[in-house]
Amino acid sequence: MIMKSKIMIWFLSTILRYLFAAIFFTCRWEIQNEKVFKKYQLSNKPILLCSWHSRFLFVARFFKSSNINISGISSSHRDSEIMAKILLKWNWKLIRGSSTRGWSHVIRTMKKKLR
To answer: Is the entire prediction scored with pTM above 0.85?
Structure first.
């Protein structure tokens, strides 16, 4: 049974990755305050970006094509595995945890990254 769910997660994440690529190809992109972001990026200081769930895919896609080291928080629940697989393919590093499981690990890891 576990093998079937792993195969299903792999299959869905692969299909969704291609679907997202098609959607993003048809989108018109407008990046606001890019100069401000570039300035902070050149300072070599850590940057913390926050995004609403409804906008997260666009943020994730934007950083897919950048050459910066980026991490995101991904729930440790099974239902987040599909999106986690997509983010890993997009070269994101994931900090796993949620508000009910692993939150202290997330806080500690974020502190280390932001130092």
So the answer is: no
According to DSSP, residue 26 is labeled: T
d(CA 2, CA 75): 19
From residue 37, alpha-carbon distances to 5, 30, 34 in Å are 40, 14, 5
Which residue, 55, 58, 59, is CA-closest to 47? 59
Q: Please provide the average confidence, as pLDDT, over all residues in the chain.
A: 83
Task: Give 48-100 as a DSSP string.
Answer: -----HHHHHHHHHHHHTS-S--EEEE-SSGGGHHHHHHHHHTT-EEEE--SS
User: Collapsing DSSP states into helix, strand and coil, what is residue 43?
Assistant: coil
Residues 6+ apart with CB under 8 A from 61: 20, 24, 90
Over residues 83-104, the mean pLDDT reads 85
